[in-house]
Amino acid sequence: MAGEGENKPVLEMVQADGADEGCVTFVLHDEDHTLGNSVRYMIMKTVDVDFCGYTITHPSESKINFRIQTRGGIPATEPLRRGLNELNDVCQHVLNTFQARVNEFKESQGQPME
Amino acid sequence: MAASMSNVEEIRSRVILGEYSITNVHTSDYPGNYPGYDDTWDMQKFQKNFRIDIVHLDESSMEFDMVGIDAAIANAFRRILLAEVPTMAIEKVFIYNNTSIVQDEVLAHRLGLVPIKADPRLFEYRSAGEESAEEEGSEIDTIQLQLKIKCRRNPRASKDSADPRELYLNHMVYSRDITWVPIGNQADVFADAVIGPVHDDILIAQLRPGQELDVIMHCVKGVGKDHAKFSPVATASYRLLPDITLLEPVEGEKAERLKRCFSRGVIDIQDVDGKKVAKVVNSRLDTCSREFLRHDDLKNAVKLGRLRDHFIFTVESTGILPPDVLVTEAIKVLMVKCQRFLNKLDSTDLE
Question: How far apart are CA B308 and CA B329, in angstroms?
Fold first, then answer.
C-alpha cells in the first residue's frame, strides 16, 4: 500500500485471500513492544474485537506483525484507529497530570528549578 | 458468592507472590473475561482513577508513583526513556594526532560515551542517506568539539620527585579539556547555554611527556536504540507497590520475628491490651524478599502481593536534561508514534 516514491513503508496491510476485512494483519514498520503492546492493550479493551496480538518477526527486523480480528464484520482498521486515538488521549492525560504534579511539587519545594 | 467475588477482585488487582509461584501475573481485565464487570475502555473512568504523585525530584533523579494505568503503557514509557528519547552524543571523531597509548578506536569509543550537555530539542537529526555528500554537518544538526592537549615535563618539579602529578603537566586528560567550537550562528543561538561535557572530571586518557592528542569531534542527535551512548538516562525503572496483608493476628515473639522478616519500617509492633501485635505500617519499603516463608508458623499468616496498577518509577538522568523533562519527552514520543500511524491510516485507503 506504500505510495509511489516512498522508499520506506510505515504501515502495510496483509489479508488472506477471501478473508473479510475484519481479519487483518498490519505490518507496523520501525516499531517494537513499545507501541505494539500498548496499542494491543487499548484494542483488547474494545468489545467488538475477537482477537488482537502481535509478533516481532525477527530480532534483526524492525517491524511487527499486528493482527486484529473483529466480530460482526467491522473493518479491522476501525479498532486500530480507535486504539491509536485512545492511546494518544491517554498519553495526553498522563502528560497533563504529570506536568501539573511536577509544577506543584516544585512550588511546594520553593526552589525554582531550570 | 461473596467469597468468589472478592477472589475475582484480587485476581484483577494484584500479583500474588506465593511460596512456590507468582500468580495472576497478566492483565486480565478485558471485556468478556469477568461476568458482571464492564471492562470496555472508558476514558472518564481512567481519568478518575489515574493519578501521579511526585515523591522526589532533583536535577539528576526523580521518583514518582503512577497509579491507575496498565503495565503495557507504563512499560512503554520506561522503554522510551531508555531507548527513544533523543540526546546529542559524539558520533564522529577526526583524529589529527594521537601519540598516546590509547588506540584511536578506543579513544573514539571513550569520547562517544561522554554525556554532552546540549538540549537535543534544539537540534535536528542528521539525514541518514546523504552521509557521504554531507560530511561536514551543519549548525542545525551538529555540535563541533575539540580536544587538543599535549603533555610536558613540569619545569618547576623538584629533582627527586616521583609523583607524576608534580613531574608532568597535562598528563591526565579530562572531559573538561574538551572545548566547544561553534559552527555558523551557534555562538549567538546558544550564547547563554554552555555546551560541553556534563561532568568535567571524566578521565579520557593518560599521557606522558611528548605525547599529544589533537581531535575534532562531531556530536549528532540520536536515540538509545541506535547506540547506548544516546540514552538520556543512567537508569529508568519501575516496581509495583508491595501489598502485605496479615491474615491473622500475629502477637508476642512471633510479631518480633515477623518484623525482622521484612525491611525496616514495614512492620510496626503495637501495644494492644498489654500484648505486642504486629501491624503493617508501610509496605512500600519492602523488597519482597519473602523471608517470612521460611518460618512455618508465619507463612500462613501473611499474604504478599503487589498492586497491579501502582508503578513506582525511578528515573536517573545522565545530567543532559532534568528527569522531569525526560519523562514529558518520553510521553510525547509515544504520542508521536500514535500520530504517525493515525496519519498513515487517514492519508491512504488501505487496500
Answer: 25
Contacting residues of B for A94, CB less than 8 Å apart: 50, 52, 66, 69, 73, 77, 331
CA distance readout (Å), B70 to A37, A90, A95, B73, B322: 11, 11, 15, 6, 26
ipTM score: 0.91
Q: Are B237 and B78 in contact (CB under 8 A)?
A: yes
**In chain B, which residue ranges form alpha helices assigned H by DSSP?**
2-13, 43-49, 71-83, 104-112, 164-167, 186-189, 252-261, 323-347
Which amino acid, residue A100? A
Residues of B in contact with A46 (CB under 8 A): 31, 40-41
Largest CA distance in chain B: 91
When CB atoms are compared, the residue of A1, A84, A90 closest to B348 is A1
CA diameter of chain A: 65
Is A44 in contact with A8 (CB distance < 8 Å)?
no
Which residue bears the cell 611527556? B209
Return the half-sphere exposure (C-beta side, CA atoms, 13 A cut-off) of residue B129: 2
Backbone angles phi, psi at A78, to 5 degrees: -65, -55
Pairing type for strands B152-153 and B275-280 reads unpaired
Q: Is there a contact between B73 and A84 if contact means CB atoms under 8 Å apart?
A: no
Confidence of residue A109 (pLDDT cuts 50, 70, 90): confident
* Cell 518484623, located at residue: B259
**Which residue on chain B is closest to A77 by alpha carbon?**
B345
β-sheet with A63-70: strand ranges across: A11-14, A23-29, A63-70, A49-56
CB of A55 within 8 Å of any CB in chain B?
A: no
What DSSP string describes B137-158? --TTT-EEEEEEEE-EE-TTS-
* Contact predicate A86/B41, CB 8 Å: yes
Which residues of chain B fall below pLDDT 50?
1, 351
Searching chain B, which residue's CA lies closest to the CA of residue A41? Answer: B72
Tell me B170's DSSP state: S
What are B249-263's pLDDT values in tens digits? 999 999 999 999 999
